[in-house]
Every structure is written in C-alpha cells, then in structure tokens.
Amino acid sequence: MPFTGPMNNSTHSSIGGHCLLVTRPASQAARLTQLLEQKGVATLQLPTLEIKPLPASEIDNHKILNLDQYDAVIAISTHAASIALEWIDRYWPQLPYSIQWFAVGAATAAVLSQSVEAVQVPTEGSNTEALLALPAWERLSGKKVLILKGRGGRPLLEEQLIQKGCRVETLDLYCRAMPAYSNIELATLFKDGFPDSILATSIESLDNLYEILHDYRPQMASIWLITASDRITKAARAKGFSKVHTASGASGQAVIQALNVIA
Questions:
Q1: pLDDT surpasses 90 at 80
Q2: Do 130 and 68 share a domain, yes or no?
Q3: Residues 130 and 232 in one domain
Q4: CA-based Rg of the chain, rounded to a whole angstrom?
C-alpha cells in the first residue's frame, strides 16, 4: 500500500497547538483532514486499515438479484454503501419501492442518498446501538432484513435484529487488511516530531496502529488518544494508553470538539 505522508507540513499549529495523527483508511480521511486543517489543525495520515473489495466470486449475487425480497437494507459503513450501490446498479436500473433503507451514520447515509431517496439514520450517535434505537424496527418485526457489511466485525446488529423478530441475512462486500510500512516510511512521517494526539475510530484500526507503531509505543503512551466510542476507549486502556478521550462519534465535528477538550 502506498505510504501517505503529512497532509500539512506546517509547524504544529492548531487548536491548543495540536498535531493530529489520523488512522482512518485513505478513502475516508480526505474530508476529515480537510475540515481539520480549515480549523488550523495540523494533520498526519497513517491509514491503519486497508479496505479491499471482495472479488465477484465471493459476493453473493443472488442476494442482490433478489433485492426486492427484502423489507429493509442496512449499510454499516461508507465502504459497504458504495460497493453495494455499484453492484445494485448492474441489476436494478430502478430500485424497488418497498425497501426501507438504513445507515449506521450520516456519512454512510450520504453515500446511499446518491441513489436512495430516503435513508433512516440515527440523529444521535453513529453506531449499532444508536441504529437499533430507531423506532422503525418495532414495525419491522417478522420482516426480512439484509445487512451490507465487511467480512468479520461485530455480530451485535444481526443478533439484536433477530431478537426483535427480524429475519436477517448478511452480505459481505469487502475485507480489511493491515497495511505494511517500512521503518524509513515511518521515520519520514515523523521527521518533524511525533504528533500531539492520535485518532482511532475502530478497535481494528487501534490494534493495527499498536502493531505498526511497535517501536513508538513509549511516545504513544504519553500523548492523547481520541476514540470514537466507549468500546474503543476500553480497548485502548487495556493496551496501556492512559490519556484517552472518548469523542461523541467519528464525525469531523466530534473530533474538533474532542480536540477543544484536550487542548
């Protein structure tokens, strides 16, 4: 995977003088870093997850061909939404009217909205728990639901929907991998100094960060780690991170609010 160097080579300026290390996949990081830098936050990019669409042979075309048999479709990530829409466009020039569409967060809803007229998304929170709190699920008991997702991940959404009486199927559209970086690439990234804070928006990205920056663990232990949920915070503390702040979510605004708190 190509190494992504500093997005801003300026001196560490920003909210509270912070420079933030962003660990999101490269395709997700651009909008966030642009917003942060508009606010004066210096950023470095080190994607700790690589998203790889699954080949056609591993994607269940039958579920896409029979999309009209589902009462509800859920996209759990921007990657799931974008890849699914590419496949759906091949077979469905017009989407079935009967489907209710759901997204875990606003960014995922925005991707779906490119093709879907109405997407239900939690107004507070951007995780599985917030999605499950939507009142629409009470009306979907006994209905057939398709979850668009990546391979692996938490089974909580599927389990909880089954408990609510839904008939649930899943469709894996991509897999995640840990990128490889050389010592020279990492030294180049940190040539102007180690960042003042790190952003981790999933447990898997945190785990990979811990492995990729194995030689930098003492530095990581002394700076702020911003997480997107209590689950990630708990995992971070188990790894020895002591300065951990839980943001209200993974959005750019949530990250900026977190920086204002720790600055």
A1: yes
A2: yes
A3: no
A4: 19
Most distant CA atoms of the chain, gap in Å: 57
Rounded to a whole number of angstroms, the distance between the first and last alpha carbons of the chain is: 33
Contact 205, 23 (CB under 8 A): yes
Whether residue 232 has pLDDT greater than 50: yes
pLDDT in tens, 100-142: 999 998 889 999 999 999 999 998 777 888 899 999 998 999 9
Q: Looking at residue 7, what is its pLDDT? A: 40
Q: Is 17 left (phi over 0), alpha (psi -120 to 50) or beta?
A: left
Single-letter amino acid code for the residue at 95: L
pLDDT band at residue 1, thresholds of 50, 70 and 90? very low
Provide DSSP, 174-224. Answer: EEEE-----HHHHHHHTTT---SEEEE-SHHHHHHHHHHTGGGHHHHHTSE
Comparing 56 with 159, which gets the higher pLDDT?
Answer: 159
The last residue of one of the domains, among 176, 193, 223, is 176
DSSP classification of residue 113: T
> Does residue 2 lie within any of the structural domains?
no
Classify residue 54 by its DSSP letter: P
CA nearest 258: which of 205, 197, 194?
Answer: 197
